[in-house]
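Bug #77: duplicate submission created two jobs. Keeping one. Sequence:
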Amino acid sequence: MNRKIKAYQAIIYIVLFYLAAVLFLLGPGKLLEKDRLLAGAENPVGTVEVREDQQVQQVLIAEGDYLRYLELYVTSPKSAGEYYHLLVYDENNEMLINRDFELKADEVPGFVRIPLGIDTTRGTAYVWQLQGKSEPLELSYENTGETGLACLGSYYVLADSTSTQMETQNIVMRLVYTDKPSAAVMTILKTILCVVAAAFILAAVYLSPKQPKLNNKITWRFVHWVTAGPLITVGTAVLLWEVYGRRAFGGKPDDLIVYGLGIGLFFVFSAWVLFSRRGSKYHPPFEEMLTEQGMDWLQAAAFAGVLLGGIHYMNALYQNQQNLAYREVLSWAAFLILTMVSPAVLFSKKGGRRALIGLIAGGIWYVVQSLTQKEALQTNELLGKQIFLEALIVFFFVLILAELAARIRAKKLVEGSVNRIYTAVLFGFMALLVIFRNTRLWPIYLAVVFALYYVFYLGWNKKKHLLNNFCNGVMLNFALAVVFAFARRPFRAWVYSRYNFVFHTVTITATYLTLVLCVLTVRLFVKLSEGMPQNSTKNAKGMKHKPLRKKDAKNSCPADLWGTFLLYGIAVSLLFLTLSRTGYLAVLVMTAVLLIFVPVFVYRQKIREIFRALVYMIVAFVICLPMTYSGIRLLPALYNDPYLYEIEDSASAIHKDDPKDSDAYMSVSYFKYVIENKLLSDASELTEQTELFCNAVTSKPSVKNDVLVASAQDEAGMSDAEDFSNGRLEIFRSYMDNWNATGHTEMGVLLPDGSISVHAHNTYLQVIHDHGLIVGIYFLCFGAGSICLMFAYAIKKIREDAYAVLPLAVMLGFCVAGLVEWLFHPCNPLGFSAMALLAPLMSFSPPQTCRLTGYHDK
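Kept job's structure:
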């Protein structure tokens, strides 16, 4: 914030910011899109009933590119408050819509608006079909010839397994299309905007040598005031108007209070960030930063990419999706390995020759695979991406193997010291996984990728950068995931009443957030200690370090850690909204250990620093919880493009153009109810409580009783009052009954009820089951030894590496979460991270004497 730039550079940044803002409004913001109502004469001549045993179909011809709403004239007053089912098909009889909708009391009798939100092709026929419920629904129909429209066909009555066409008649309806400028018009408009922006930028650059004022120094704070300040102010005003002015999101008092609190805290927090005092810190020129830190940025991006591939893998439902995600993880992992090669080698003539060979090899692979799988490409739309990623992996591995061969020839595999015992044990573990893989392929992938990763790490001359880059990569991945969730992942009430973030299961969400919080907790400790002396204070005789003291901090301000504070608060809030005991347990154990270990034994601060760190954590959660809840409730409804995984899509899901005040969105009152049934009571009485809740809140019986029960019982409620483990103890016993020395081919086991388990819901039991007791015992001993070494590493290396505690934090999260979930897989974000952070231990040899109260050198 205190970094200074020249005035003309500030103009460039400001112009680019507002250009991006305008382009966003023209694109995703849909600024130029307009709704168009298409309606006929609307002269009803009769009514037709939609019942459980009688359905109605209507044919229409599209007269637009996007059909947003369907409005039907309903005449039955008793239908108000009831739910009915709508289906929409295209001319090929492919289902486009399958959902329930509610008839609101203030709309009946009259036109009832049903959101569709489907892309249509002009001149193409479409059919909508209504299915009735217990209360009949009366629709009006009219004579088609009197409507004055040529786009309405006949309607059909489906009853008793027969379809009766009502010729020359159609259901009275209105169609709302959304029209947007053509692609050519949008291209011309965006080009004009870019040209105008470029003219301003070129003028600023051209005039800078001639106008001294353009070379005056301006702080980044001023740039933020001019850009982020108006954006935040306008955004806050729009949200407040939508919530309180238009009541677009409903009018329940508790919801309005939380929305207002969240919006207000966001504005106050943003103002604090923009206007508060900042510590002075040297900021090198961008060119210097790019030269010195460019490879670090690429490595952080690689870590973020690996986690993104892991997210895709954990969300995959089919084998082709898993295959694609596997290759995504491998490609990013290969790129990660290459970031540990010197830029002088990568971008030299020798590196160019290697790249050329890699491009040829990758191209050959792509062509051969495309030709041999030509027929499969026509039916598997993901196969083309898979082949491309395989070619990219071939390209990367050519570069990796060429560099590895060069290092072997030059006998420069290792840079610095090596803990030979730990390295041998680590490679021995990977060898055992391959030997006892029992037909599985992923142990081979894990062994090859991490063997190369560890070898390149040992030969890397910037080992101290790894943990910082990993931290930045996780934060980058999480920040992008938060933006995506705030735009397209609404908090749903039905079925998914525990927020599942960017995943389709709550448990995987909790383990991912465990990783994020492990990283952000360490990051928070680092930021709180910034400005304290980092250089060694021991003398040549090996005297102990002096403790880090708060009064030694210089040029450090609380506002300097706003980014970490915000991400930490959002991550804790999201974890709270999952109501996942797995995540709660892992994060609580990790936090408790670090709260005591880091301030007292690593930084050697006074006990009060524990409470200082705890206060920051609690305040972050308290401030960010209303902001996070309001964000995932309000912003996706405004953005109006929810992203649904295939397994999430159902009649009760939230779809595009659904009303912003729909009961399908989570409410504060219902979330309180879910908390009570998840954490505070037995779910065996859930069915009756659900019905009572729906009667009390919506003044109508529950029409989604089945999905409400499924939501609260999904990994949440206790199926048995004496079994708080959700059946996991029974699964654990079944796996232990199948122990052997060498492992099994199948992951699952036969349960007492005759079903087959998917996996053990326990990392340790799954490793023993998959690979046998030999590998399982080795795995447990190796993990325990690694944790002990990580404690020593944190104490010994904290002065050299501010993130020395990070391997311990992640491993604690992995070990605790692994008690109730299977995590050890190279495509699991937490599993990959735990393996990646073992690398620093290979170059660390603990001192002869290492105590928690201090240490002596050898």
